[in-house]
Fold this protein.
Amino acid sequence: MASHCNPRYFLNPRLSFQLLALVGTLTWHILVTAECAALNQLRGEVGGNVTFHCSVANQELKFLYLQKGEIFVNGYYESKDTSQLAWKNTIMDHDKTTMHMYNLNVSHRGEYQCLFQYSGSSATQKQVIHLSVTANYSKPALTVRYSDENHHSCLVTCASHCGYPGNKVTWNVPESQMWNVLNSSEMSDPKTMMVNSSSTAYFNCSNGATSISCSVGNVSSDKFSVCASIEPPPVPPSPVIEAICAVVGITIISIVSVLLLWWRCKKGQRGAAAVHFRRVNGCEEEATVHNESNEGKEAS
Ligand SMILES: *[C@@H]1O[C@H](CO)[C@@H](O)[C@H](O)[C@H]1NC(C)=O
Ligand SMILES: *[C@@H]1O[C@H](CO)[C@@H](O)[C@H](O)[C@H]1NC(C)=O
Ligand SMILES: *[C@@H]1O[C@H](CO)[C@@H](O)[C@H](O)[C@H]1NC(C)=O
Ligand SMILES: *[C@@H]1O[C@H](CO)[C@@H](O)[C@H](O)[C@H]1NC(C)=O
Ligand SMILES: *[C@@H]1O[C@H](CO)[C@@H](O)[C@H](O)[C@H]1NC(C)=O
């Protein structure tokens, strides 16, 4: 910072090499006037936009551009076309001093310089703009794993995804609870640099149910109850009961069938008895007839 505020001329070692290559002639000593301006701090979010504004006087400019390190970002040099060098996620405003950067990712964070020169001047002026990029972590999710059926203890994991910068999980647990953190991890994606943060804690359940939560960055989980007493699970139809039901059902059906059969048999027997009776009568009649005929034969 001190050097930025030092009002002297110095050679800018970082003037975008690409722009120099493009304009060809600017290879010799370029003097940069250090601006004693407050460091511009820009904040952006992953996927969001920011606007870089270079503060220049209302004078004609020979060139004005933004560079990151030695890399050209966007800008112009008199009438030369620099569009093929400009980052695809940037647009220069009509005012030619404001640049918009879209679809930010973590790699865009860092120090930028706005370099410009007024027409008729050979002094290049520089402004430093610092861009920080953050990403909100997902709402942390808590998952519980009981080590035994009776819930004597459990392992609770708190996990949150895709944030930046790295942040540890913090646990919000009542003091009375017996617990300890087993491990914590912050896994960074090598490509996007986004971080997944998680932590696993051990809880002793001998004091009963406790409400806990966890946080990553500024984002907190919902309240979560651990060590809740075990509710008797809704009784599923047990095989024994099913078997008893089957036996009772079969028994009832059997009894009814037997009764029905018995009733039908009884009815049938009565019918049969009647027939037999009639038959008997018939026989008697026959016998009688027979007798009569015998008698008749005997008579004749
Ligand atoms: C990130 O969190 C901040 C603060 O809670 C909020 O203002 C902002 O809108 C969030 N960003 C996104 C992309 O959700
Ligand atoms: C943390 O510990 C738990 C329980 O021992 C284990 O399941 C999990 O994989 C560990 N996580 C890390 C990141 O080491
Ligand atoms: C982070 O979590 C996301 C979502 O669960 C997953 O897709 C990604 O692979 C994880 N990244 C790392 C580095 O573990
Ligand atoms: C929980 O803590 C109590 C009291 O300190 C102890 O007696 C018990 O063994 C612990 N239970 C487990 C599962 O660690
Ligand atoms: C989020 O947390 C950071 C510190 O980790 C803090 O500087 C920032 O102000 C917080 N943002 C919000 C919106 O609470």
About this structure: The pocket of 2-acetamido-2-deoxy-beta-D-glucopyranose (ligand 3) is lined by residues 161, 187, 189, 196 (CB under 6 Å). Confidence is low (pLDDT under 50) at residues 1-14, 24-37, 272-300.
